[in-house]
Specification:
- The complex is a heterodimer of chains A (124) and B (108).
- Chain A is mainly β.
- Chain A is 3% helix and 54% strand.
- In chain A, strand 4 and strand 5 form a beta hairpin.
- Chain A starts with a strand and ends with a strand.
- With 108 residues, chain B is mostly beta strands.
- Chain B is 0% helix and 58% strand.
- Chain B is globular.
- The chains are: A mainly beta (124), B mainly beta (108).
- At the A-B interface, strand 5 of A face strand 5, strand 8 and strand 9 of B.
Chain lengths: 124, 108
């Protein structure tokens, strides 16, 4: 059974970069039937998909239009983990951040496994 | 971007009753790309239904999904005490995912 363990700081200063990591066990980050997503949740914005990365002979990423200019999602095969970087954060980026898996062969374009969530607060 | 609107915002029912939750899309969504989640306080969402009507592993059969096009429904046939929480729908279209704003199911 896949497990996603998130790590990263809970407090980020405005204008700085938010960085989170999702360590994967029970699956491979470079499997060709999965994708690794970042999703956030706040009272004002609800559940908001931020982007995904996946491997199909090479690495691909897709991003939400709302954050496209500020976001990078990467994968590290040697560490079996995915990462999120969100630049130039503002208080509006305060949210609980989740990593989540798509498992296309079984559950298609849904998120079948989730990390535990990381509360990130943007404040000076 | 496809906007998902869930109704009602809050649904007040008693254990044993039937719950019907609605999810309406601003544009047609392929049934393949429609999912439902349950979220309890302090927890990540849990996948209930994918492909509009397929129960995820371990989900009780009192949960069912239906619909097509722009109108989708999550039905809970007979409410158990642990079902009173928040539910979200989610869709995928052209490399973008969106979620509905949620329906809170509360005990009457």
């Amino acid at each position: 059974q896949v497990q996603l363990q998130q790590s990263g700081p809970g407090l980020v200063k405005p204008s700085q970069t938010l960085s989170l990591t999702c360590a994967i066990s029970g699956d491979s980050v470079s499997s060709d039937s999965v994708a690794w997503n970042w999703i956030r949740q706040s009272p004002s914005r609800g559940l908001e998909w931020l982007g995904r990365t996946y491997y199909r002979s090479k690495w691909y990423s897709d991003y939400a239009v709302s954050v496209k200019r500020r976001i990078t999602i990467n994968a590290d095969s040697s560490r079996n983990q995915a990462s999120l970087q969100l630049k130039s954060v503002t208080p509006e980026d305060t949210a609980v951040y989740y990593c989540a898996r798509n498992y296309y062969d079984i559950t298609g374009y849904s998120f079948d496994s989730w990390g535990q969530g990381t509360q990130v607060t943007v404040s000076s | 971007e496809i906007v998902l609107t869930q109704s009602p915002g809050t649904l007040s029912l008693s254990p044993g009753e039937r719950a019907t939750l609605s999810c309406r899309a601003s544009h047609s969504v392929s049934s393949t790309y429609l999912a439902w989640y349950q979220q309890k306080p302090g927890q990540a969402p849990r996948l209930l239904i994918y492909g509009a009507s397929i129960r995820a592993t371990g989900i009780p059969d009192r949960f069912s999904g239906s619909g097509s096009g722009t109108d989708f429904t999550l039905t809970i046939s007979s409410l158990e005490p642990e079902d009173f929480t928040v539910y979200y729908c989610q869709q995928y279209d052209r490399s973008q995912y969106t979620f509905g704003q949620g329906t809170k199911l509360e005990i009457k």
